[in-house]
Amino acid sequence: MIIKANVKEALKSLITAKQRTILALIGIVIGIGSVIGMVSIGTVVQNEALKQFRDMGIDIVSVTKDYERQGSDEGFNIDHIYGLPGYSTLVKKVAPYIVSSTQYSYAGKDLYVELMGVDESFFDLNKLYIREGRLLSDLDRNRFFCIIGAETAEMLQKAGIKDIIGRHFLFGERIYTVVGILKSLPEGGGMRPSGINRGAITHITTAMRAFTTRDITTFMARVGTQDSKAVKAVIENYFSKKAGGLRIRVRTAEELIAQMQKQMQLFTLLLGAIGSIALIVGGIGVMNVMLISVTERRKEIGIRRALGAQRTDIEAQFIIESVTLCFVGGIIGIILGVIISYVFSHFSKWEFLISQSAIILGFCVATAVGVFFGYYPARSASRLDPAAALRE
Amino acid sequence: MLRLIDIRKSYQVGPTAVDVLKGISLTVEKGELLSIIGPSGSGKSTLMNILGLLEQPSAGTYSVEDTRITYDDDRTLSSLRNKMIGFVFQQYNLLPRLTAVDNVGLPLIYRGISEKEITERSMEYIKKVEMQERFHHKPTELSGGQQQRIAIARALVGNPALILADEPTGALDTHTGQEIMSLFKRLNEEEGITIVVITHDPKIAAQCRRKVELRDGIITG
Prior knowledge:
The complex is a heterodimer of chains A (about 400) and B (about 220).
Chain A: H1 3-16, H2 18-56, E1 60-65, H3 67-70, H4 78-87, E2 91-99, E3 104-106, E4 109-118, H5 120-125, E5 130-133, E6 145-148, H6 150-158, E7 168-171, E8 174-182, E9 199-203, H7 204-210, E10 218-223, H8 228-242, E11 248-252, H9 253-296, H10 298-306, H11 311-347, H12 356-382, H13 386-391
Parallel strand pairs in A: 4-9, 6-8
Antiparallel strand pairs in A: 1-10, 1-11, 2-4, 2-10, 3-4, 5-8, 6-9, 7-8
Helix pairs in contact in A: 1-11, 2-9, 2-11, 2-12, 9-11, 9-12, 11-12
Chain B: E1 2-13, E2 16-28, E3 33-37, H1 44-51, E4 59-64, E5 67-68, H2 74-84, E6 85-88, H3 100-109, H4 115-128, H5 144-157, E7 162-166, H6 174-191, E8 194-199, H7 202-206, E9 210-215, E10 218-219
Parallel strand pairs in B: 3-8, 3-9, 6-7, 7-8
Antiparallel strand pairs in B: 1-2, 1-4, 4-5, 9-10
Helix pairs in contact in B: 3-4, 3-5, 4-5, 5-6
């Protein structure tokens, strides 16, 4: 039996029964669409989350004062932090930072900007690059210079402020001079401090003079090993020696990635379940259409059998019809899914990706649904008694 | 070529068995033009189904070219129908979605012949029934007589040993019916094709060289 002729036949018969075909297609389109949409969104989210690590590397750890066990006691002593690389060769570089607890506004306008205090190595560890002006260095100690994030700059420009570099801004009671604007950063990921795009950054020594809270609660470090257990042990050891009462938490890139992957799995599982239910419903629709098609074409089946069609020929004919139906639904569904994930990433301001594996998956699932739900109707068609079918 | 020995067929209708064929013995020789005539209910359609390997007799033996049909393998039966038998039905039974050429080519599709060859052979046989003006017409665009010619081309295309025609003129007017009968006679005389025509019309039966009368499931003459 020639497959090409069969597919042509199948398309003709599906076009003849337009309404029914469209109804069955809707189910398949929604099913495949949601599966593809979910896999594509998953890919986009994962890409976005991992982008930070591709950018920063996975040799970065973040050390935080453990609030759960510590309460609101004092944070780290800055000299202890700077002493860490000298204590262990596992720690290459450290970068403490503090974030102001109050937000600032500009000239009575509602431009809320969070101010951070950092040191020179912070820029290197977090891979922050300047778009205009210059970065801060450790020569800017105690000086009221700041650089601002990309979104902050945009906000100021929208408010009508031009020539941002060199301007003076009042944050709280201090006047800061803007010396640079940062390049925009991807959001999310959990390692890099959030809000850099929407914030402003000054030197940590300046911040410790100006801020009301001077506690350092977090620092970042570049480490010289992939062994996160060893890193944790060394850092915990060091601080229990230096500051006995201080409880800390060390989060490695590895841990964050593992945690993220767990979340992704849950997300995929959930959406996968929804998609599968939609596909089952769609598949039942296809089966229904195929059963009606078989009933309506009993006579045709009788004629074909009289002319010498084997049972397998009849079975193949209806399975091909069902697969053709699902394949058409699959194509539309894949387009729909890609559109859904495009809209999703557009509004989340995430980088849009087309997942090739999702498209291949879509076609495979569509074919599988076609075969699975077409099998029973096709089989019942092939079992019809030819003499009885001809009498219709 | 065909040999029926004491063929019986009964159907179970509710609790009672209805005997439709009560012992038919019949031999059809190669190159015959035979009519089987009988009123409705005489069992002639059942006989045609048995001859056409569409139904299995309840008892008796049926041999085609000295090979006894065993009925235990659908694959063999389908293949025999495909290669040995060409059907012509009262209602033509063309597939409405297909053109004349595609309808005629149907039996060949199940032989795994290339599409090109199927089309060539289909056209050749459509010419043989003088329908070459209607290659790409669909059945609804053809008259009854034209449809029956296409159906005959379809029956011939596989080069079968036997044409089984079930009331081939039953849905046609007298004149067109006569044309179809002339076509059968020509095919029988010129090409030596064995044809069995099943009919209730004595005028049709009279045109065949041999006539078998069926009444109440037995051959009466």
